[in-house]
Design goal:
Elements lengths: L11 H10 L9 E5 L7 H7 L4 E6 L2 H14 L4 E5 L14 E7 L4 H8 L3 E11 L29 E5 L8 E7 H11 L1
Parallel strand pairs: 1-2, 1-4, 2-3, 4-5
Antiparallel strand pairs: 5-7, 6-7
Helix pairs in contact: 1-2
């Protein structure tokens, strides 16, 4: 169905499945939203690994939504719901659920996602963004970032925490960018 690059098929385990599971130690609470899930990454691997967490997958493309619904049925995932939703047009209403954790992988930088997603978080909720930001010590020997790495030029958000992790089978380090709604709220209160 062309949901991942053909050249990624041989490294599906390391590049997609194992990478998706890196967030497990940082998932808080009992509800999780995967925004822009695409082919179900990281949401479906997280749902399999954490059957007691209710996971919602948001995807804007109807074709992918149909695939996700079929995949969840085939895998027998009772803790997953799939919703066709474009995060850029999603506004939280009083009736909308809030989530304890929101994850985003290959969607947008944390600086872009935070203003869109913070209202979808519970008071103690956390946004987790998978990032491949090149750090000075991550550079290749000749000093250039690899093609898969990008350098963030945006100043960091107040309260942003970055956690480095390695994925077996992949050479460069990856990062999870963590934004806590409670910490951000406290910081905002101190500034006013």
């Amino acid at each position: 169905m062309n949901l991942v690059s053909r050249r990624d098929i041989v490294r599906l385990d390391s590049r997609h499945l194992l990478d998706s599971l890196a967030a497990i130690p940082y998932v808080t609470g009992k509800t999780l939203l995967d925004v822009g899930t695409g082919p179900g990454l990281p949401g479906i691997p997280l749902a399999i690994a954490q059957p007691n967490v209710a996971i919602t997958l948001w995807e804007r493309m109807a074709r992918r939504v149909r695939f996700l619904q079929m995949a969840c049925r085939e895998l027998g995932l009772k803790n997953v719901s799939v919703r066709e939703c474009d995060i850029e047009r999603s506004t939280r209403t009083q009736e909308s659920p809030v989530f304890d954790t929101v994850v985003a992988r290959a969607v947008a930088p944390v600086e872009t996602l935070w203003p869109m997603m913070r209202d979808h978080l519970s008071a103690d909720g956390r946004l987790i963004v998978y990032s491949h930001i090149a750090k000075p010590d991550d550079l290749q020997p000749h000093g250039e970032p690899s093609p898969e790495e990008r350098v963030s030029k945006t100043p960091p958000l107040a309260g942003l925490e970055e956690v480095a992790y390695s994925v077996p089978g992949l050479a460069h380090r990856h990062y999870l960018q963590l934004m806590s709604k409670a910490a951000w709220t406290r910081h905002q209160a101190l500034e006013t």
